Amino acid sequence: MSSVKVYYTSVSGSREVKQRQEEVIKILDSYKIKYELIDISVSLKVLQEMRMKVSTPKALPPQIFNGQEYCGDFEMFHKAKGNKEILKFLKME
Predict the structure, then answer these.
(1) What is the distance between the alpha carbons of residues 64 and 12, in angstroms, rounded to a whole number?
(2) Is the C or the N end of the chain the one with fewer CB within 10 Å?
(3) What is the C-alpha separation between 78 and 24, in angstroms, rounded?
């Protein structure tokens, strides 16, 4: 059983971040993949947790995990989409 988690922000002044988040969610929904959204804007602790997990001090959402295993960021997700490898990217196959 997979437990896909997407770190995102419900508060962003960046149109690019919003569009990227929306695209990830739209694609996960189209694949009927269950996922949990983790909002980094609720606490600095959650933002720091996301950045620690991806080992990048300035990482921006969306960041995607399967359980505790890091899958990648939007760029990696977008590349997997283009290669029709979403399930592989999500470590579900």
Answers:
(1) 18
(2) N
(3) 8
